[in-house]
Specification:
The chain is an alpha/beta fold. 19% of the residues lie in helices and 39% in strands.
């Protein structure tokens, strides 16, 4: 905002930018030939508190010909911007299983492209990851000489799963057992043992329910169940079976649901095709060829961009984006693509807010009880029964605070998802046929005519269709 000078030069105004890194001077009068001395202008700056980074040569220019700066103010002071630091991060010290899997080399030197090693095995006591501390930034200086703090940096937080430990300094993570590194819900890091089936999951093997990772070197036949607390790798297909994993599921062939069973992963699912299936992933679903007459849900993205990249029939939902090559067909088979917030996320947020309120009420009651009991404990005035009660209240407080922290973290994650609805998109790289339905957030758009290479997204309260660039 402009401030009129208070040192007698009423025709001079000084303004300071909102970030306090720049100061400008301008001339308010229409008189010709008026000039000022350098001392006069420096006094004006002092009145307005401008005392750092003053550009003396610019002041001299203004003093000689102020009318030149009636319309366009002149920059006459430049502060020092704060230098941002670096957030901390977790550096993993092994080859993640999703990075560049390589075909297995046999003893005779030949390469077996059917046996691709995707398992990240580690040994007991091996360092899995290290925590790199955040680096603080450098403060700046405003034109008024005040310090400008740098942006706050965030330390990386360990997300410990099973069979991993930290060193005393909490700088390194170690494996407790031999096994496979696996990420489960909310990026928790685990090391799980591996259970292998050398063939199909059928009547010979029965159902599988394992605490670690499962590798099936064959098919999962209709009616059978495979459950894993870690990841599941299947070299064949899934036929009308129930396959669930807390981690990711990788199916080298496809899913033939026949209206039965389901495939569900806490993280991501990869496969070649889905036919009459029910599929749900906490993060991404990546399909190489086609999704036909299926119900598919992904917390983040559904990607179907292979040679066919075809989605026909059913409902495909994604929290963020859906990308396909072809959507629908010439017979106008109803096909729904829905991007944005998923219904279960809305329900989860409401339930978490309800739980948080109850926890905060219980914490208030617990803290009130502790305020009464702890002073008595310090004065050694508690009976054994009261001491036992005090210990229970302290334990309850710890448990409630821990649960409260977990809920708040999850609420923040969900609220971020809700804020990103304007980033939700449906991208069609080839053709989308009439009969298709696009849903983004709470809004719906029906596609009546066949169009090519388009992107659907939310803008100004409606779903717009734009050419894909």
């Amino acid at each position: 905002m402009a401030n009129e000078n208070q040192s007698g030069i009423h025709a001079v105004a000084v303004t300071i930018s909102e970030d306090r890194l720049k100061a400008f001077i301008s001339y308010l009068s229409s008189e010709n030939g008026e000039t000022f001395t350098l001392d006069q202008l420096q006094n004006v700056l002092m009145v307005h508190g401008v005392k750092y980074g003053v550009l003396e040569q610019e002041l001299i220019k203004f003093a000689a010909n102020p009318r030149q700066y009636t319309i366009q103010p002149l920059l006459i002071a430049q502060g020092k911007a704060p230098q941002p630091g670096k957030d901390g991060y977790i550096n993993f010290l092994y080859q993640p299983d999703h990075e560049s899997p390589k075909p297995q080399v046999l003893d005779n030197g030949k390469v077996d492209f059917r046996e691709i090693n995707r398992i990240s095995n580690v040994k007991k006591g091996q360092v899995i990851a290290e925590r790199i501390p955040a680096q603080e930034g450098q403060p700046g200086i405003s034109v008024t000489g005040d310090p400008l703090p740098p942006p706050k940096v965030r330390e990386a937080i360990w997300k410990l799963g099973k069979n991993v430990v930290l060193d005393d300094e909490k700088l390194r993570m170690y494996a407790v057992i031999d096994g496979m590194v696996t990420f489960t819900d909310r990026d928790k890091v685990n090391v799980f043992p591996v259970f292998e089936v050398n063939g199909d999951v059928d009547y010979r093997t029965g159902n599988i329910d394992f605490v670690g990772n499962v590798v099936v070197r064959g098919n999962v036949m209709s009616g059978f169940v495979v459950k894993a607390e870690g990841d599941i790798r299947i070299t064949g297909s899934v036929e009308g079976a129930e396959v669930t994993a807390s981690g990711s599921i990788d199916i080298m062939e496809g899913i033939v649901g026949r209206g039965k069973g389901f495939v569900k992963a806490g993280r991501s699912i990869k496969c070649s095709f889905i036919l009459d299936g029910n599929v749900e992933a906490g993060e991404n679903v990546t399909v190489g060829q086609s999704i036909m007459h299926s119900n598919v849900r992904a917390g983040k993205s559904v990607i179907c961009t292979g040679a066919k990249g075809l989605i026909v029939g059913g409902v495909v939902q994604a929290g963020e984006s859906i990308v396909a090559r072809t959507v629908g067909n010439m017979t106008h088979t109803p096909t729904a693509l829905e991007a944005g917030v998923l219904p279960n996320e809305r329900n989860e947020l409401a339930e978490l807010n309800k739980q948080l309120k109850a926890i905060q009420e219980n914490l208030t009651k617990t803290e009130s009880a502790l305020k009464i009991l702890e002073p008595l404990a310090k004065a050694n005035q508690l009976t054994p029964e009261k001491k036992e009660m005090l210990d229970k209240f302290r334990l309850t407080q710890q448990q409630l605070e821990s649960r409260q922290s977990e809920i708040v973290e999850r609420i923040e994650e969900l609220e971020q998802v809700f804020e990103n609805v304007e980033q939700a998109r449906v991208e069609v790289r080839g053709t989308i046929f009439g009969g298709s339905r696009i849903v983004i957030g709470r809004f719906t758009r029906f596609v009546k005519d066949t169009v090519n290479q388009v992107v659907f997204r939310f803008e100004n309260g409606e779903i717009i269709m734009q050419p894909k660039l």
